[in-house]
Design brief:
The chain has about 450 residues and is an alpha/beta fold. It has helices spanning about 1-50, 170-175, 210-215, 230-235, 355-360, 385-390, 400, 415-425, and strands at about 50-55, 60-65, 80-85, 90-95, 105-110, 115, 130, 155, 160-165, 190, 240, 245-250, 270, 280, 290-295, 300-305, 315-320, 340, 350, 370, 375. The strands form six sheets. Strands 11-12-13-15-17-18-20 form a seven-stranded mixed sheet. Strands 1-2-3-5-7-8 form a six-stranded mixed sheet, with no helix packed on it. This is LRRCT domain-containing protein.
Amino acid sequence: MRLFVTLLLFLLVRSAEPRRGHRSGAVERGSAGRVRGRGRSGVTRRQAHQCKEYTEAGERYLDCQDKQLTAVMPDWPTDIHHLLLARNRFQVLRSNMFSQFTHLKSLDLQQNDISRVEDDAFSGLSQLTTLLLQHNSLQTASEEVLLPLPRLTYLRLYDNPWSCQCQLDSLVRMLQVPSNRNLGNYAKCAEPLALMGQKLRKLSVDSLCNNDINVEAGPERPKPPPIKLKPEVTSMCRTYIFPRPWLDCSNRAGLNHVPADLPPDIVKIDLSNNSIIHLRPKQFLLSKDLKLLNLSSNSLHHIDTAAFAGLLHLRELDLSNNSLKYFQYGVLEDLYFLRKLSLDNNPWICDYNIHYLIYWLKHHPGVAHTGLICSEPREFRGWRVEEYVKTYNGECPKDKLTGGTDTGQGGQGGSDNDAQEEVGEMTVGQGEPLPNHLKEKKPNTFEIIRLS
């Protein structure tokens, strides 16, 4: 009997092994499935990590620009301070869309296609100080949108087709509060026709609900020109706001001129490695806050006199690796506070035209400059331009200009009248004697000669 029971147990164990093996395989497949699940979530994380995450000055940045995004990803880190979402495909900002980012200080949503912002879209962002919504498709918004942002001090709304009618009343009133001086600067009406082009901050608020103003243009009236939603600078360059507002227009194929519509609040512009050959007057006139301008590695060979007009605060100017031979008189006169001027690798010609540049540098000793080496003519090639200028009058010493020497002795035919005549023959402000052929004057007379 015991033998029978033992045999029965043995058979039961053997029969159970395939099922256990099958169960083990299922577990293995389940495990593999979970691995694949982790793989998928890993891909999601990697997709999220396609956004560049970095730390600067103790603050965390998440750079998700140019990612074709239409919404916020759920696995993004929530303890970031700056979120960069420019040049994506956001169209509507939904309620509580950013509420998890409670530490956020700046939110960059420029150059999307945002046409609507729900009232609670920025709920939870009590620390936000900077909001960038320029270059979008917003037509209207209310003050309610900005109420969750008690610390907001910097708001950009320009280059949106604002419809200046009653729905915009509360937003315009808020922008016009004197303490909100950095909110909504440069934003303009796109319609109605009577208000087109007027700045929101300078509108007469009562006119927003004026029925006469808001009557649409009839068929007999010309239609307003289309609103240019994507200026040239927007399509060709990238705009960054942190750590400082700057514009990256470097290495743009086919860029042979300074783009139009430069942002007025930009601090740095990088136009290096392009094909710009000519700087025309007042191309940077609106960028009055500009401090760094990089024009290196272009084909620049001519700069008009007023090219840098308005750049009162410019500190650094890089013109290296171009085709400049000299500066026209007056080119640098607007750069009152320039501190660094890079001029390396330009074919400077050492002749009279180069004197203006040296003259300007001499009278601005605080400007550190590099790269002023003569390229032509051959006899001065490799010379420092400053050394060339010092030798410019080397062949005209004073003794040659006087046409002779005066020993100061009597008995040389000189007299008191002659000495008095010599004094009269000095050029005003020069202190140099005149050549002999100008000395044939009547005795005891004086004449002022101005030499060119």
